[in-house]
Amino acid sequence: MSTIKLKLFKPLLFLLSVFSSILTTNAGEIVNLKCEHLINPIGIDNPNPRLSWMMEDSRKGAVQLAYRIIVGTDSLQLKSKMNVQWDTEKVNSGNSLIIYKGRALAPFTKYFWRVEVLDKDNKLVLSKISSFETGMMGAENWKGTWISDRSDINTRPAPYFRRVFEPAKQIKSARAYIVASGLYELYLNGEKVGNHRLDPMYTRFDRRNLYVTYDVTKNLQQGKNAVGVILGNGWYNHQAMAVWNFDKAPWRARPAFCLDLRITYTDGTTETVTSGSDWKTSFGPIISNNIYTAEHYDARLVQKGWNKADFDDSKWRGINLRATPSKNIVSQTMHPIRNVEEIKVKSIRKFDDTTYLYDLGRNIAGVSKIKVSGPKGTIIKLKHAERLHTNGRADLSNIDVYYRPKDNTDPFQTDIFILNGDGEEEFMPLFNYKGFQYVEVTASNPIKLEEKNLMAYFMHSDVPATGKISSSNPLIDKIWWATNNSYLSNLFGFPTDCPQREKNGWTGDGHFAIETGLYNFDAVTVYEKWLGDHRDEQQPNGVLPDIIPTGGWGYGTANGTDWTSTIAIIPWNIYMFYGDTKALADNYKNIKQYVNYVNNISKDGLTTFGRGDWVPVKSTSNLEYTSSIYFYVDADILAKTAKLFNNQNDYLVYSALAKKIKKAINAKYFNAETVSYGSGVQTELSMALQWNIVDEQYRSKLAENLAKRVAADGMHIDVGVLGAKAVLNALSDNGQAETAYKLAAQDTYPGWGWWIVNGATTLHENWDMQATRDISDNHMMFGEIGGWFFKGIGGIKIDEKQPGFKNILLQPNFVESLEHFTASHESPYGTILSSWNRNKNSVRYDVKIPANSTASLDIPALSGKKIYLNGKVVSNKQELPAGSYSFDIK
Hints:
By secondary structure, this protein is an alpha+beta fold. 24% of the residues lie in helices and 29% in strands. The chain has 17 helices and 47 strands. The radius of gyration is 29 Å and the shape is globular.
């Protein structure tokens, strides 16, 4: 057969197999199709987006033998494979995350795609058709001009903008593309567009700006339309004073925005309504707003219908044309911030006719919404607090310590609402969020309030949940729940330290909690955005600040490896959890610059560049030792990444550097006779185990010594943030799971459980609840425990050789103090389940391995017990294909 005929024959055979398999297959489904880790996204800028899917097939040994991706611009034609944009043809591979390599994607275009998969029986399974839509695909495609009002940076009232337009023809579809320096709310014909909060996400505004895309087809009408925009200060125009110097940020200016509203008509033509000189502006009821303090709203200044077409704007002023803050305007391709959960008030306390105290019963990040009636001009103050004074009033003293007010006009975490006197009025801030459990409402005139008058909203980046645990110990479940509350309270387009006192992207807090975040939530889009912030902030010499983004603060001498290792640790963890190399590729040069900088300032492989074991219980650890370990971690990640990308020269250089650092650490800090590190405190011993500093021959003994040290410390933790990241893993990974569990489940001081039994619903910043500093009640820096539950008890671990849970390491620990434990994680291949239940003298262990993945099982040996599978004795170590299994250990 000729080559030409063979080329024609192969696709024909594939099509015939498609047809026949549709009629015969009863296999699973292809589900969860995503582009750039999002379902049916719009506004994609990546010219080579990532396409991924999941195989849902409960049969044992379910696997993907081959795939075929077809992309086109017409969903009907896609079914018949006509006018295809990209056709991979059949690829013999189990990969389910593929980079688009078809024809160049055009801006403002909707693409449809589907996947064909050959299952384990060589039968073809078809996905439903999914889509993604490109956005600007480059700053040159913007048509609008950046505009602002004519006020300066010290003007308190928020600017309102409007414009009326009339579509020329019948509308088929419409998209709004908007970018702002600061924050915005977008309206069309009197209605808010979308349900996002605090858009766009915070970036280094003079180096990168994010635009958001909305489908506004249903918001438009034939005839006259009105588009309205309100701008908030956000982090762009920081008017409040604080120690972080954001009021002196080099980008600081009056907020501005640029808008393109692109309308496609039924005849195929397009028209773009843009921001420009034909817009008008005015002030409104938002008389002050600050991301750091609160928002002030004077309802007497409301201009009803300001964002509708028939509004009389003759008294509104002209706008000011502005230069773009940066030329790097890119799509905000990530899960947005939303009012995710509505929190009802648990109780209300009335002090008098003008003072009430609301208790939510839990600590959250977000806003409150009040409905209240009162005389015109009545000033309502809503003070948001985590704690109460002994007299029951709101106490801000633990969270306002860095606030440096010029005067008393902008109190910390206190919204101000001035009534217009027109019946029941409602207020919820637009450009602010707080961290709080209590809302103290005070009024300048008597008012009547009940529980129903106030509602709170838990705000955060709306990332899907991917992990769940449950156990026989309610304390463990509460710690896990509180950890997730803190994690979400500190996820606002980037991970923060706390939602009240600072709202800063502390790098250390970010990487200490990375595994907790990724075991429990699909947060990759947030982390990829934050890594972009890292690249924006990195100095030419490789130095990173320890808060990112920053207005300039944080480039000091202590922002060392234990904090700014985010640049290496977070991309590596994304690769581990998703099998996705993009974050490593995007940041490879930056990791290299950073490691080179640390190497240049280090002597003989050791460095003192770091902050150390922040907020320890009592014992301190050697700074050079802990900082050098993170230096090793970074160099090791860089070496492994170089190998992954076939960069042989870098691999040789940085693997040699990693070996040098490890050798230097062991030479100076390891005592072979006692098998100990440094002064032998928990942090020093556990970090050597966690980060693979100790030689294999000493690992077991070092873990024993760590367990003995914990016992000597009264079976309580004695660590700061570095030790909290390491200690539980160091124990449970090395034969000391019982000690690890006892630490995790301690309900006396110090420990996670101590917070919980004392009423905490989030993690705290200090082990000592009576401490006088570092006393935020909603912090994430001790949050590794939320990931450890999956690893240390459930035993769901990553196989570095087959990342993204392509192969799962299952190493459960049946700790004696628990009767049952269940952990599940939604991996890129589907749900992983690891669940065990103790029944008298036996243990039942249930496992679920998703289709197209495998597992290496290692059940801990129990004295005198045998392991049964389907009634037959089996080894405690098994290589398992996809499927569900039940083991009996008896």
